[in-house]
Amino acid sequence: MDHKAPRLQPLSYACRDEPFTGLLAFDETVNGPRPGILIVHDAWGIADNVKMRAQTLAGLGYVALCADIYGDGQRPADIGQAQQQVDRFRVDPELLRDRARAALDALAALPQVDASRLLAIGYCFGGMTVLEMARAGAPCLGIVSFHGLLKTSLPAAAGGIAAKLLVCTGSEDPLVPIDDVAAFQQEMREADADCQIIIYSGAKHSFTNPFASDNPGIGYHPDADRRSWAAMLELFAEVLGSSK
């Protein structure tokens, strides 16, 4: 990041009487409320990729908050602990929705944020999280999932999704097979959701993360990263209109 990039600062909030600490970024030289964007981390917690995205989006004029889904100071030490966290929330989507909504509410309450112009994006586990937010009717104008898990035990109700959705997934992602994509598309159809799904050829899981290790089924894909980011910005321009 450029040395002039907006700094990251902690933001504390609570959910179900438990403490959480997210990371906030915004341009402190700009006056007036701006669109707020919630960024949800992957299975490893708030790490370099989401921090970088928050600073980049803050530089584009958003107030960006990296949500803390796991809890204050809780970070997986290894892949086993990371998988345990993901599994915990997969079987309890209501808890996941509550924690994500608490972060969104904390963002919306900031004086720098226009609470009528909220957005959310998520990576991997975070992509799953923001889609659960969408299914729960979160008051966001746009929600974007990057290589997020698509299955849920609480499918969207008809007319229950308020946000316009963008789902970016990789054709070579073993965690999101094509059958899951088809099932998700059918769920969105039955929910009458405004949803665009883009499949990037050759892209594995974590294709947007330049810090990801290159393992079978996992790896950074610069073209898919660049194209999915552009698609996200196009959606944001659409839902925000000329008001941003």
Sheet of most strands: 8 strands, mixed
* Helix-strand category: alpha/beta
Strands across the major sheet, in which order?
1-2-4-3-5-6-7-8
Measured by DSSP, the beta-strand proportion falls in: 15-25%
Overall spatial form: globular
What's the β-strand tally? 8
Output the radius of gyration. 16 Å
Low-confidence stretches: none
Please count the helical segments.
6
For the termini, the CA-CA separation is 24 Å
Explain what you see.
- The chain has one domain (9-243): 3-Layer(aba) Sandwich (Rossmann fold).
- The chain is 34% helix and 23% strand.
- It has helices spanning 48-59, 79-90, 93-108, 125-135, 178-191, 222-240, and strands at residues 9-15, 18-25, 34-40, 63-67, 113-123, 142-146, 164-170, 195-200.
- Helix 3 packs across helix 4 (125-135).
- The model has no long low-confidence stretch (mean pLDDT 94).
Entry keywords:
244 residues; single chain; Rossmann fold; 6 helices; alpha/beta; 8-stranded mixed sheet
Short synopsis of the structure:
34% of the residues lie in helices and 23% in strands.
Helix-strand blueprint:
Layout: E1 9-15, E2 18-25, E3 34-40, H1 48-59, E4 63-67, H2 79-90, H3 93-108, E5 113-123, H4 125-135, E6 142-146, E7 164-170, H5 178-191, E8 195-200, H6 222-240
Parallel strand pairs: 3-4, 3-5, 5-6, 6-7, 7-8
Antiparallel strand pairs: 1-2, 2-4
Helix pairs in contact: 3-4
